[in-house]
Amino acid sequence: MVxxxxxxxxxxxxxxxxxxxxxxxxxxxEIQVEADIHGLVACxxxxxxxTMSTAERKEVVELTCEVVDGRIPVIAQTGSPxxxxxxxxSGHAAEHGAAALLLxxxxxxxxxxxxxxxxxGDVAEAVDLPLMAYNFPxxxxxxxGVDFLARLAGRVxxxxxxxxxxxxxxxxxxxxxxxxAGLSVWCGEEALFRSALDAGVKGFILGAGNVxxxxxxxxxxxxxxxxxxxxxxxxxxxxxxxxxxADSAYTxxxxxAVTLLSGPVGPVRRPMxxxxxxxxxxxxxxxxxxxxx
Length: 293
What we know:
Layout: E1 4-8, H1 22-34, E2 39-42, H2 54-68, E3 74-77, H3 83-95, E4 100-104, H4 113-126, E5 131-135, H5 137-140, H6 146-155, E6 159-164, H7 169-176, E7 184-187, H8 193-198, E8 203-206, H9 213-224, H10 228-246, H11 250-262, H12 277-290
Parallel strand pairs: 1-2, 1-8, 2-3, 3-4, 4-5, 5-6, 6-7, 7-8
């Protein structure tokens, strides 16, 4: 699978939030491809998968793969609290051309480590695609530590990647240094973008890609070619955006930024909240500085 920066694609909804805005989604995908982003993730956390029906998640993945049409890889996030739903979504994503599957750990639970290994194993048996574990304990309530990831990768060889959104820089760097043989760590935290690049992390999945895909791709490409000046320039330009995302409701802020850049994308679905006035006031100059970048 192609390495690089993958945008955790937002899901645009109709103005009342009840339907997927298919035309706007297609437009957003084209913006990403034209910006030379390395890949896309459909129905991730930024894509509000937890507020979507199974049919809606299938619709988004299918449309994303259709519009991309093989130009860049698409990873489908097919995790669920229900193994049956995860299997249904994973089979559908494989059928429609996903390059890999990202699976959120079953949340609410409770599940133990053996349950999680069985969950990934069931998907691996059903679908012939590489799998990416998702370490996001703030959302799932289940931290995936290095020792557990070693067990998981040993028991389920299809798990070849882990997206780390834990914010634990030490673990990220340990994994980047090869703490688990054969497991590639992907960074899911904007705050760790530069340190992860410097450590040689080969993959990133970031909601910020909805706002600044070209800058993120440029920074990654500069790091891979050891162009320090270009890397410094790109990362400095990204810092205000990263700060704005860190200081407010993440998905609502991403949607507000994209609305300022290229037009409405519909609301975030409740119970999540939209970006408030103070956030918009801070965000407006940040977005203005990123136009045409």
